[in-house]
Amino acid sequence: MKKLVFLMSIALILGTVSGTALAQENVDYFVTYYANNIAGAPDATVRLVNDGENSSNPNGTLWANIYVFDDSQELIECCSCPVTADGLLSESVRRDLTNQSIRRIQPPRGVIKVISSRTESDASTNFAPNVPVPGLRGFATHIQSFNNQYPFGPAPYSQTETELADSNLTASEQLLLEQLCKFDHLLSGAPCRCTPEDFDF
Description:
Blueprint lengths: L1 H21 L6 E6 L10 E6 L11 E9 L4 E9 L4 E5 H5 L12 E8 L18 E10 L11 E7 L1 E2 L4 H18 L13
């Protein structure tokens, strides 16, 4: 009997810990990657959803502050896109996020970072800092080469889709992203484009 009670206690503890792990707190910083961003391959997509948690702005609007890097750790584009409560923002990697690269070359692979913010942080606000808040959730499609060749593979291609990875936003990382974005705007004058919410492709 004591053994049964002990086993039941362990199961209850494990269930509580598991339930806690499943109910993770929403975060305000996400990362993902893009690959095979080349002619002949399908386009990848980043989709961002406003879960409606934050209501401090009109219509519960949050800003997806997007920072796009190549695989050499260089920022190539950035922009700040509004997402209303329960809204869906769909961004094409090829047409919206890498089309106006500061070097005028579309990188075949790289990294995308997103800060969920209560404020816009781009040239139109004189580079005001982000005010990170939870509320955005993201997903990205990834173009995979069937042969998985380096640095990018030939056709045929397949697509996978994953959630954006939750990440820890430090003050130094936030400041660096904002400063890099400021320099990108000043040097290129060409931020990435924000697709209207009700438009998909």
